[in-house]
Write a structure and sequence with these properties.
2 copies of one chain form a homodimer.
Chain A lengths: L3 E3 L2 E3 L3 E5 L2 E2 L4 E2 L4 E4 L1 H18 L4 H17 L1 H12 L3 H26 L6 E3 L4 E7 L3 E4 L14 H8 L4 E4 L5 H17 L7 E4 L4 H8 L6 E5 L2 H13 L4 E4 L5 E4 L1 H20 L11 E5 L2 H16 L8 H16 L3 E4 L14 E6 H6 L1 H4 L7 E7 L2 H9 L4 E7 L7 H12 L2 E6 L39 E7 L21 E3 L2 E3 L4
Parallel strand pairs in A: 7-22, 9-10, 9-12, 10-11, 12-13, 14-15, 14-19, 15-18, 17-18, 19-20
Antiparallel strand pairs in A: 1-2, 3-6, 4-5, 7-8, 8-21, 16-17, 22-23
Helix pairs in contact in A: 2-4, 2-6, 3-4, 3-6, 4-5, 7-8, 9-10, 14-15
């Protein structure tokens, strides 16, 4: 049985059961056994995290940056083992996806988080010299991270975006591994623990458990020792955690579900339909469609160009190799959710069948509905079929497209393709106006699956895409704000202020809002 | 029966019952009758607010600023009538409190909000030129405002901090009047409606209802047409609304309860005990103690200076005139909650008795407990007795004080008085470290009741002081962020970007983060 990492020690779990991950390429269980922790493990992790949070009050952002950088270096030194195990647990291609994609993204993200912690500008220090009031975001307290199945490295519970943001904001992390790749998460936690020891971080800085009962998960996120939680995963499980955390008044940042509407207007299709068909197919089937921002709903206007586009992408989906899915659960959910759409009247264009070749997989699938059908039951029609599938909607008018967008729940992204000569502009304006308030990120002429780690990124959006539309889960420094509490100092004697709020800038680089102007200067 | 303001029209409510406010100075009902609206009123207000939110997408921050400034001017033109009615409904002194205090605070706040809307810096525009990604906070959608009883002007539902912030962020407001001062709120709404018409705002920009059933209130804050809610009031009612809003994934910003611990260390008492006794008495009895930041828990160390301080403030509380309370409900809650503390073992120093002179009022009250008593049941001992009362805690050691602070729930404020020669410094450091993470605003040598409208203010704090520790309800531009959603633009064609994100600054004043540096310049 693998060990949990609690209070700086790898030790046997308090567990009454265990689980194994699967090799998606063979449908077989992998040999390692992981414990399902009892509450005792959670409780000890919470105690240790609370103690770490106290110790962190005396540890500067620069020292936290040292830790994050040492961790990134340690990951690079162990990259081959991590990539090997992640490949075994996810079947993602080693070179193009894991070693060449997620790995540099992960270490880059940790180094950006380190730079943000060292600099301090993320915390929006604000100084009002006339009233003697100064404020800054400070650590919110121990953060629980529940990472998703689809990014074992770059969004892993002990290595990814939520982890990096929580640590850089000055918080210890209790990582709950995703059951699809517990071994990968364990390797990361080993690197993190070594780096924490090497840089003098407190014992409970990074802790790892693999799984708990649902009940203990809800108890964990609502515990008084917790500051906040970051969760990316299924809507059902996320909403249960949200309810528990909300009742206890504990912030929880969730990334739940999103169909990511893509409107492709007739002018764009006439101009470059074949190119867009390639883009769409690539985006929708990349990673076997297992992206939070997978284009799951395509909005089209009836006409010849649209008929040609549908015919093109149907052919491409039929011809494209069928990718491997992450787990039996993903395979089953995909089939189930596609059936929900078919039962609701969606027409099958291609796919929607099991593929029996010894892997977790399902045929590349396209379904089609009319806007009338969609608008008759938008809730059912927005069922997310996570994986290599998409629902095409063909409307008879721009009015119908606008109504369709207005009927959508919150989404992470929304895209509109339009032509370059202006024939789509009137439709664009109407659709974009509705789409703007439904999505966190609005795109033009580009598929949504690339999520750059940019200060201007918003990987977020209105419920149920996330739990709160003011926060982003990707992008530094913005993503750190989720794990800060606003701390105001009123008439505090100068020498007692945190360094970042004293008259002299602590480092000459931090941007502070002084009497309404942003500056890097001393006061 | 007074009329509601819905969709730009003052009209009869759809109501099945009514209520009257009281004159706190006479305990008698005031003549005006206000409707308890049925769901039909809420539903129509939501439809109109949703339409207004759509119209506001095409209205610039500068035009919203025009509205807010016209509104502030209109209030000033009608100040005497507002102050008269507010005095009748609250019994607050006209000159020192209403005309001289809240009124200029209210119009100043509206003008600061106007300046923020015109400038745009509140929205943290962020531009990444290398990736073509740009983001900015935009309007979250219609905002419901439930104002408190204790600030009829400066935190009124249609005039105060939440209102100003929601409007300045680009949202229409549905104001739910506080039942203590429905007439004052109506007068404000009349000014607002005139200003909205004069400046060409959409019909549902400001709407007013007076009261609904609890069930309809919960339905309102969780309605899909709502963007967010601001609520200040009782913990019980607030938590019911929070639960409804949370389940629907709708942000709700609550200001619930706070005992606002004030630690007065022995050195400070030896040095200036008499002065601090005056400060405390003034702060605790001002406005009959009906401040969110009233010092309701005083933390002391056993000793001669503390004995003298307690004796001083007990005498002052006995001698001070008894102020008028806002309502029969406040009077009853105060008596009930003080009894909870007495039943839990608190010793009565002065007060805790009815005062029968034809007003809503209750004797100025001080209770005392030991730290041992407090720590035996911190939950009961933190019962907020809103009004002219405070609980004194006398500890035998700094350890006990630190444990006491560690046992506290989240609070809006925490203060520490220490001496100027350093004898309190060791105790200060330990107490401040614990207190920092329990409160939104930490003070030195100053009572918490002044809440400056400063960019650096945090009128917020961890649950249950508020619903989320990252947001402030007072202070501009910070308070606007509660009513914004993060809107990212990825690869959007330049002419389609909102003005604030185009290369050229729209006004030369807005601060934008461009490639990691804050600047007012064009790109």
């Amino acid at each position: 049985m693998e060990k949990v990492l609690i209070a700086g020690q790898w030790r046997d779990a308090n567990a009454s059961s265990s689980f194994q991950a699967s090799n998606p390429g063979t449908r077989e269980l992998l040999p390692a056994e992981y414990p399902v922790s009892n509450w005792e493990d959670c409780n000890e992790a919470l105690d240790s995290a609370a103690a770490a949070a106290v110790a962190l009050r005396g540890i500067s952002g620069a020292r936290i940056a040292d830790f994050l950088e040492a961790y990134a270096n340690d990951i690079e030194a162990n990259a081959e083992a991590i990539v090997d195990l992640a490949h075994a647990e996810t079947a993602y291609p080693k070179e193009t996806r894991l070693a060449g994609g997620e790995m540099p993204r992960t270490t880059n993200q940790l180094r950006q988080a380190a730079a943000a912690a060292r600099d301090g500008s993320w915390a929006l220090p604000t100084i009002d010299t006339s009233t003697g009031i100064r404020s800054v975001y400070g650590a919110i307290g121990p953060v629980c991270v529940f990472g998703p199945n689809n990014f074992p490295l770059a969004f892993g519970s002990a290595s990814g975006g939520d982890f990096a943001a929580a640590i850089a904001a000055g918080n210890p992390v209790i990582a709950k591994a995703n059951s699809s790749h517990p071994g990968t998460t364990r390797l990361f936690a080993e690197c993190a623990q070594r780096a924490a020891e090497a840089t003098g971080m407190p014992a409970g800085m990074v802790q790892l458990i693999y799984r708990t009962s649902h009940e203990d998960g809800e108890r964990l996120v609502s515990d008084q020792r917790v500051g906040a939680t970051g969760y990316t995963g299924s809507r059902h499980a996320g909403l249960k955690l949200k309810q528990a955390a909300d009742l206890a008044g504990k912030p929880i940042y969730l990334e739940l579900s999103s169909v990511n509407p893509v409107a492709v207007l007739p002018g764009a299709l006439s101009e470059r339909g074949s190119e867009i068909a390639d883009e769409f197919t690539g985006s929708c089937l990349m990673g076997t469609g297992q992206f939070c921002t997978n284009p799951g709903l395509v909005l089209l206007l009836a006409g010849e160009a649209t008929d040609q586009f549908i015919s093109d992408i149907t052919a491409k989906f039929a011809e494209a190799p069928v990718g491997t899915l992450l787990s039996a659960g993903v395979e089953k959910s995909l089939a189930t959710n596609l059936q929900v759409l078919v039962d609701a009247g969606a027409e099958l264009l291609v796919g929607n069948s099991a593929v029996d070749d010894g892997r977790f997989c399902y045929a590349n699938t396209l379904l089609k509905v009319t806007a009338t059908q969609f608008l008759a039951d938008p809730e059912i029609m927005q069922t997310e079929a996570f994986g290599n599938s998409s629902l095409l909607l063909v409307a008879d008018s721009v009015d119908e497209l606008v109504q369709t967008v207005a009927s959508l729940e919150g989404n992470l992204t929304g895209c509109i393709y339009s032509d370059t000569t202006g024939s789509d502009d009137a439709a664009y304006d109407r659709i974009a106006s509705e789409m703007r308030v439904k999505v966190g990120r609005l795109l033009n002429d580009k598929m949504p699956t690339g999520v750059a780690v940019s200060a201007a990124m918003n990987h977020g959006g209105p419920f149920p895409a996330t739990g709160h539309p003011a926060f982003t889960a990707v992008g530094i420094p913005g993503s750190l704000l989720r794990f800060g509490m606003l701390q105001c100092y009123d008439n505090i004697r100068a020498h007692r202020l945190p360094e970042i709020l004293q008259d002299a800038s602590p480092n000459g680089t931090v941007w502070r809002s002084v009497d309404g102007s942003w500056t890097q200067a001393n006061i």
